[in-house]
Amino acid sequence: MSHLTLHDLAKKMKGIDIATLATHTDGGEIAGRPMSNNGDVTYEGDSFYFTTDDTRMVSDIEGDRKVSLSFTGKHGFWATVEGDAELIRDKAAFEEHWTKDLDKWFEDGVDTKGLVLIKVHARRIKYWDKGEDGELTLN
């Protein structure tokens, strides 16, 4: 049973920029890679990451939307998120989540050819906080 609410978890996750995003490959293996949410760290159950459509990650998600995220925070806090990934190819959504720091990775900004926004909607969050653990289930 969870002792923390989603609001509590959001406060603990605030400022965690890097997560490991794991997907299922077409061969059934699990592939993980570090991803930055580019300072978009307000957490209400959804996480957002930019990539391009020529990556293995995108083809993995097209084959299987089930993904996981792993976060390591400060002071003995860890969280794993199981969720569903959505591939967004909408410029308005790009602009909503774009930060200036992304310009170093995508030189044409929101007009970068093949740009994709990955939205991960959490279904289950398992956390460990200073020796205590808990779990939240979301819709």
Written overview of the protein:
The protein has a single domain (6-130), classed as Pnp Oxidase, Chain A, CATH 2.30.110. Strands 1, 2, 3, 4, 5, 6 and 7 form a seven-stranded antiparallel beta sheet that branches. The two termini are 17 Å apart. It has 139 residues and is α+β, with helices and mostly antiparallel strands. The mean pLDDT is 91. 17% of the residues lie in helices and 44% in strands. Strand 1 (18-24) and strand 2 form a beta hairpin.
Topology:
Blueprint: H1 6-13, E1 18-24, E2 30-36, E3 46-52, H2 56-63, E4 66-72, E5 77-88, H3 91-97, E6 115-129, E7 132-137
Antiparallel strand pairs: 1-2, 1-4, 3-6, 4-5, 5-6, 6-7
Structural class assignment: alpha+beta
The CATH homologous superfamily name equals Electron Transport, Fmn-binding Protein, Chain A
**Overall morphology:** globular
Q: What percentage of residues falls in helices of 4 or more residues?
A: 10-25%
Tell me the β content. 35-45%
**Topology pattern, helix = H, strand = E:** HEEEHEEHEE
Radius of gyration: 15 Å
Q: In whole angstroms, how far apart are the ends?
A: 17 Å
Main sheet, how many strands, which sense, barrel? 7 strands, antiparallel
Overall mean pLDDT score? Answer: 91
CATH topology: Pnp Oxidase, Chain A
Number of helices: 3
